[in-house]
Amino acid sequence: MQILITGASGFVGSAVLRRLVREGHNVRALVRPTSDLRNLERQDAKPVVGDLASPESLAPALSGCDGLFHVAADYRLWVPEPSGMYDVNVNGTRQLMTAALEAGVRRIVYTSSVATLGFEADGSPADEETPVALDDMIGHYKRSKFLAEAEVQRLVTEANLPAVIVNPSTPVGPRDIKPTPTGRMVLDAAAGRMPAYVDTGLNIVHVGDVADGHLLAFEKGLIGRRYVLGGENLTLKDIFEEISAITGRPPPRVQLPHNLVMPIAYLLEGWARLFGGGEPRVTVDGVRLAKKRMFFTSARAKTELGYKHRPVGDAFRDAVAWFKGQGYF
Question: With CB atoms 3.0 to 4.6 Å apart as the test, which of 48, 109, 112, 163 could cross-link to 149 if both were Cys?
Answer without folding.
Answer: 112
